[in-house]
Amino acid sequence: MSKVLVVADHLQGKLNAGTARCVTAAGRLPEAEVHVVVLAAEAADVAGQAAALQGVAKVLTVQRAENAHPLAAVLAPQVAQLAAGYTHVFAPSSTFGKDLLPRVAALLGVSQVSELMAVEGSHRFKRPTYAGNAIVTVELAPGTKVVATVRSASFEAAPRGGPAPTEAVSLEVALPTHTRFVSLSAGKSDRPDLQSAAKVVSGGRALGSAENFQIIYQLADKLGAAVGASRAAVDAGYVPNELQVGQTGKIIAPELYLAIGISGAIQHLTGIKDARTIVAINKDPEAPIFEVADIGLVGDLFKVVPELTQALG
Description:
The protein is α/β, with parallel strands linked by helices. The chain folds into 2 domains: 167 residues, HUPs (Rossmann fold, 3-Layer(aba) Sandwich), CATH 3.40.50; 114 residues, Rossmann fold, CATH 3.40.50.1220. Helices cover 26% and strands 27% of the residues. The termini are far apart.
């Protein structure tokens, strides 16, 4: 039997969609019993959201003032102590998970599995390498505690179910004091979250300026889509780096992905390979993006995109 602890990724009272995808991954393990732990100063709202996920057997809450902000140095000793009762510890392969789980693995004295994308057994997994151009199989020794970040784009989000029971847990663990929260800087938008959106409209360097990028925003608003960008567009200063899609940005798996003025460098393709439908608009008929696009349109984006936006009403 696999007893799995999924560490909830949450911010400002909202559960990150990656946690629901982690629950799905955990459920693929043999005879899995999945628990979700919420570490927070006030855990009730997030715990309720986690308890509503199908496949969750129990939600644990660890409430203490030190957990008000997601500091990996503070959370890791708590997760490591909780891990004693589990065979597996999972977290989304988000900024949160990538920061936290290496510390947890180090405290437990085990190797971490990164970007888990398929479960083949209790200790056998697949993960991408070489910018997604190759898939490797990782097998851990039987009996080893598994600590893994889950590639969210590879799994569907667990649907609503439950509610699962919630249990408050008190931990006797010394927390480090050398790390403290100073501030959080994050872009605010009424648009859907890029990593969990069903539809994404992305622009590339061909837009030419931050001002021209407004046509991407306008089309996205018509579609109710999130906005993304290529690394070239981010490096050029057209948009902030939190919109970057690709190997060094966000890896996404929307139902619909529109790539506008994006040539299709391998780094970018790595971030969208799990998208269900890819639509590409580019004036270069030889652009690599057309090799992976389900629908391709060769044309001037400054003509095509406004016309498309207008046609959407």
